[in-house]
Design brief:
The protein is of the alpha/beta class. It has 3 domains: 170 residues, 3-Layer(aba) Sandwich (Molybdenum Cofactor Biosythetic Enzyme, Chain A); 77 residues, 2-Layer Sandwich (Alpha-Beta Plaits), CATH 3.30.70.2860; 144 residues, Maf protein, CATH 3.90.950.20. It is elongated. The strands form 5 sheets. A 6-stranded mixed sheet has the order 2-1-3-8-7-6, sandwiched between helices. The chain contains 14 helices and 19 strands.
Length: 404
């Protein structure tokens, strides 16, 4: 078993000014290759703390991946920290320095002297080429009584890091011989605790493992199995996966890389979809933006505009805009006034006494369905929940070639 830790370096990450998407990417990459990730750590640009964190991670893990801190400025300290932990002195590598100078000269510029530190290496480090940036990575090997330890230093910009990881790091890693296979089932309309209750003992077994995760579009269930070969792992996975699928069939809308909007698009089966939104700031249209079936949308809270789209003055006066009847009328209006085969609407309140209350409706001309969401939260959460609830309603109500 190969044990790994990830250290993300950067004060901007520590303060939340930038979201650490690199660590999430690496965690997925490691998991897919059977590497056991025990910890993810975020450290600011401080030599002492980065060195201490690196030494501690190296004492526990076989593989330590450090992201960020490879730039040319004084607060880019990853190289210095690795050199300190390895008790080695960095020196300029002539080939790296020539490569760096060549990058600038090819663009008619003179390389700043500060960039020379990006040409440093220590004796135990191998430089990792960076074809889309100026920061080479490091692949460091350390021999211990317990075996070889590896430190990988990667640049912070995701475009550079992803390419270096796939092209330079993966071919060098002593990846586990065991195979890991997994499938993620997507659900909507059921809470995580309810999913865990339905799955029961399945969530407490080790291999295959069954784990639940809350996502914006609902609850995901990841079923994973490992074995000496892929065929053995898939054979181990199959019965448990079938069991989970059966238990959650009522709420399942897709698996793995599918999106909820894409699943709705498949259910439309060639029909076009029109959308009217009031109070959601276009959250539903944004989720649907890349779907070919998404025909047209009207995003407005202007009552006069909504009346031209199908909302009746009687409903507006007696029930209000945030009401089931308003959602029904606007779903019919989305179909009729936006010249679509199917109409979908969402109306919601984000402030005042109706904050957190939302209604979504779907209209096919022969079928009309609604759903209600009433859960407090900040405006962004309310809009997000309402948009996802509308997609969930559309998925459940529609069936390929007809209604269901």
């Amino acid at each position: 078993m190969l044990l790994a830790e990830i250290i993300s370096v950067g004060t901007e990450l520590l303060f939340g000014e930038i979201v650490d998407s690199n660590a999430a990417f690496l965690a997925r990459e490691l998991g897919e290759r059977g590497v056991t990730l025990h910890r993810k750590t975020v450290l600011g640009d401080n030599l002492g703390r980065v060195s201490e964190g690196l030494a501690l991670a190296l004492s526990r893990a076989d593989l330590v991946i450090v992201g960020g801190g490879l730039g040319p400025t004084d607060d880019d300290l990853t190289r210095e920290a690795i050199a300190a932990v390895m008790q080695e002195t960095p020196a300029e590598d002539p080939e790296l320095l020539a490569w760096l100078r060549g990058l600038y000269e090819a663009r008619g510029r003179v390389m700043p002297e500060g960039n020379r530190k990006q040409a440093w290496l220590i004796p135990s480090a191998e430089a990792l080429p960076n074809p889309v940036g100026t920061a080479p990575g490091w692949f460091v090997r350390r021999q211990t009584e317990g075996g070889e330890k590896i430190i990988v230093a990667l640049p912070g910009p995701p475009r550079e890091m992803h390419k270096m990881w796939r092209e330079q790091v993966l071919p060098r890693l002593p990846l586990p011989g065991r195979a890991l296979v997994h499938t993620t089932i997507h659900t909507q309309g059921i809470g995580e605790s309810n999913v865990a209750e339905i799955l029961g003992e399945l969530t407490r077994q080790a291999n295959p493992s069954v784990a639940t995760y809350f996502r914006k579009t609902g609850v995901d269930v990841r079923v994973a199995a490992s074995a000496d070969t892929e065929a053995e792992a898939r054979a181990l996975l199959a019965p448990v996966l079938d069991d989970v699928r059966g238990k959650l069939a009522r709420w399942t809308w897709g698996e793995d890389g599918q999106t909820l909007a894409g699943a709705v698009g498949q259910r439309l089966a060639g029909r076009t979809l029109g959308v009217i939104e009031a109070g959601s700031a276009g959250a539903l249209s944004l989720l649907l933006a890349d779907e070919p079936a998404f025909h047209d949308a009207a995003v407005t809270q202007d009552h006069r505009r909504l009346i031209t789209l199908g909302l009746t003055p009687v409903t507006l006066k007696e029930a209000g805009l945030v009401s089931e009847q308003a959602a029904r009328e606007l779903a019919a209006g989305a179909r009729e006034h936006l010249a679509s085969d199917v109409g979908l609407s969402v109306v919601l309140g984000v402030t005042g006494e109706r904050a957190g209350q939302a209604y979504a409706a779907l209209d096919t001309g022969t079928l009309q369905k609604t759903v209600t969401v009433n859960w407090p939260g900040d405006p962004e959460q309310v809009r997000e929940r309402a948009a996802v609830a509308a997609l969930g309603l559309a998925f459940r109500a529609l069936a390929a070639g007809g209604e269901g």
